[in-house]
Amino acid sequence: xxxxxxxxxxxxxxxxxxxxxxxCSIAQIYPSGVFIDTREAPMNWKARSSAIAVAVxxxxxxxxxxxxxxxxxxxIGRFTVKTVLNGKFxxxxxxxxxxxxxxxxxxxxxxxxxxxxTAWPPVVAQASxxxxxxxxxxxxxxxxxQWAFAGKPLYRSAEDTAKGQANGQGIDDAWxxxxxxxxxx
Length: 185
What we know:
The chain is an alpha+beta fold. It has helices spanning 11-25, 45-59, 67-72, 115-119; strands at residues 27-29, 35-37, 74-76, 79-84, 88-92, 100-102, 135-139, 145-149, 152-153, 175-177.
């Protein structure tokens, strides 16, 4: 029988010790013995590569493509960002029509009804639509669900007859487009 020299600490003990240190560095162990992994899930490689490609294209000026073209069709859920008014970016509906907010609306409530709603049609939400990010769904006085952005109900302007127009901007000093800065996209 061959005897192995005794080493302290043994290799097995050192491996277990290292595993415990690693486990404690990526988790929180509570007195009850509950092990909670605190690591964040890694970003999907497709999402990471497309985000890097857009960032590089913007940084380099995207030869052959303007930043406006890159951002003009930027989808935010069921809404888009379009170029309107002197190259500014504004929130638009899926059809490309500019969206507005009414300064007199309190947060999460629409007071634009009857004749006002004819001139400024509300952006109606579907029954299956759910809130996301800064977008929420409110209930109008007539019971229809309406989209809101940052608590302000969203409307279209009857004055806008084509995509990308912003003819309702500044009417009565109360109607404004939702301007999106390039760094927010």
